[in-house]
Input
Amino acid sequence: MNISIVGTGYVGLVSGACLAETGAVVNCIDVNESKIESLNQGIMPIYEPGLEDLVKRNVQKERLFFKTDLKAVVNESDAIFIAVGTPPDEDGSADLKYVLGVAHEIGQSLTGYTVVVTKSTVPVGTAKKVKAAIQAELDKRGVSVEFDVASNPEFLKEGNAVDDFLKPDRIVVGVESEAAEKVLKRLYKPFVLNNHPIFVMDITSSEMTKYAANSMLATKISFINDIANLCEIVGADINSVRKGIGADTRIGNKFLYPGVGYGGSCFPKDVQALVKTAKGYDYELKVLQAVEEVNKYQKTVLFKKIMNHFGGYIKGKTIALWGLSFKPETDDMREAPSLVLIESLLENGAIVTAYDPIAMHETERIIGNKIKYCKDMYEAIIGADALAVVTEWSEFRLPNFKVMERLMNDKVLFDGRNIFDLDQIEDFGFKYYSIGRKPINV
Output
């Protein structure tokens, strides 16, 4: 099959490389000429485990191509996936200008049947707008061309996206014709041979499924964070509580890990967009509004703990951060809790040093040299008055506490991800604050 994917961001690049791995010929299109040039040189615009090798292998096998001219490939494509960005507008709604721009461009060149698939995360009703945009261009040209529009939301986890695509929990497809269903089932056949389910439904339900899924996961995160905050107040241990409720199969134990709030490109944007969609239909999603409010508050929790420990005065104090990205195994800094913490620390006169295995260059691109970037986790804590763990990278889990004691000005540790055992911390004598558990040695 010949596939075109418009957009070489996170979703488009992973999707293109994985589809090429099954033998499809894939053209990845992007208007950013420098990005396309870099990709053709084997330089990845994002960090994702396993992606670079996958891209290079399929480029060498001449199954994966990177181009800037969409019009040149429209009429050789069995399916065209739209995977461009849908950034939040000022009111929280998804901005569809890039999605609809691609649709108009397709309509300007289309001469034969193809399936146009929305892969971007888009609000309910977007497929109808895409279809209308393509048809408007055909009408301008005075031609009649058969085409279908379909929806195929992605459910990729950053840090595990390649595996998620190649071994999906499920594939969701929204169609309005048997012809479109046939094309997409053929494309995804290699992924369902091992009994991974494909759910075919109407387009509106498919569009809603994506937002509902991410909103449910965000809800679990905000719920457990809210309960963790209450645990601290009443003297309960959130680790015991989450195990106790997670053992209930109706609840499950996934996404029940307390921390400093969710971030990334999906959860914050999708929750906001779904709330906005509901308001457009005069309905109020009160639960999701609360989810968003809890998450905003949770991003301030670590800073509040730091301020309380130092009596409300941190000017001139050196605070070290371990982890910057919103989660491990990615360099994604979008909506990262670390940015909220850094801003608050700097506003109150603190000196910030930081180490992250992957995300320091991206952080520097966003905030510049406002903080000191360090070559490793131990350099970051030299002369530090306190350490805050913000991202749970694996290399932070078993540090040398004796080295830490020697390098730091004071043995103060704020664990925003609960990666350390209380007994271990108590033995080493660190003043320790975590999420939803009692402080130690304070």
